[in-house]
Amino acid sequence: MRLAELSARSGVPTATIKFYLREGLLPSGERISATQADYGGEHLHRLRLVRALIQVGRMPVATAREVLAAVDDTELDQHSRLGIAAWSLPGPAQGPNPGEEDDAATQTARQEIDGLLEHLGWEEFGPGTPAYETLLHAVATLIRLGYPCEAPHLRRLAQIAAQVAEADLDLLEGLPSEVEQVEASVALTVLYEPVLLSLRRLAQAEESARRFGG
Amino acid sequence: MRLAELSARSGVPTATIKFYLREGLLPSGERISATQADYGGEHLHRLRLVRALIQVGRMPVATAREVLAAVDDTELDQHSRLGIAAWSLPGPAQGPNPGEEDDAATQTARQEIDGLLEHLGWEEFGPGTPAYETLLHAVATLIRLGYPCEAPHLRRLAQIAAQVAEADLDLLEGLPSEVEQVEASVALTVLYEPVLLSLRRLAQAEESARRFGG
Fold this sequence. Notes:
homodimer; 10 helices; MerR_fam (chains A, B)
């Protein structure tokens, strides 16, 4: 197919596709004249992955390029591919304010989180990963504002989060190919975030009615 | 205490406190001279609530004024106060793009969500609430992009969300006063969102290691 058809079938504007080609995120098509190239199904798939990483996952272009290199590396197993994509995904919230990166609240939060992860035996994503750093600064904010955030409550939430992760991976394993799984792992992680948060708010209203309702 | 001390003890800048006073979000202090007023512990508490609504919950000033009126209404029970605060809280994600407010994907999503809420017997927050509308547009986005989002999966996530809500309300019930509970209900709903999302990402990495790891 030509560039115009690739754009129509993927829903990605031709200018954006040209940008991805220039940045090496999408392999060149097969050249059929001085000004035209032919694209195949593999371009359509890769385009969906690039869009998942950059538009849905807000991943910087340079990071997306590294993730794509890992996806294409036939020496890696599927766990490593999924891990590299997930590791590189920017955190779900903003980082700390200036001056709060390593204050007393952050140090207390770090101890609490390291204890939590050790208790759970979770050792895949440590300090430096966006997920760990987001957790660190969210817990530090709770401590700084004086809201409850004790270890037993965090453990309870972590065990609930493990159930979400099981549901997430079940959904992923239902997909037919490994490339689709990597693409979907990034897209589904991000796209299901507002689903989870709004279901929590609906459930809170029900639980509040049950406890405080007339 | 004077304005300067109220600012120091609350951590809210004096200019912001003056803005809250002008907007009627904070009651006036007791006037002790032509230019000075005296503030008490109730001002400190109310300031924390106003900050929870506006800064943490990103609630518009006019909406915050309505929530505060509900908190002060002695005719209302605690469930109604919590409900008005939670109902008014802006959704955890952006709304739909122009042209997507009522497209085919949104209509399918609406049917799916209404079926889900009926199945669960959840009837506190319906269409028009920020939580419902956020869920609607998140599910519509999944459908539009062709990602899996079937009813059994949503039901499974809703049941997990109900466990989070139980943990949330347990935390809230541990607080000593009703005003503190209303304040904390808004603040904790928002502040625990990045905690949940990052715990989910950490749990996904563990679950992926268990299923795909070597």
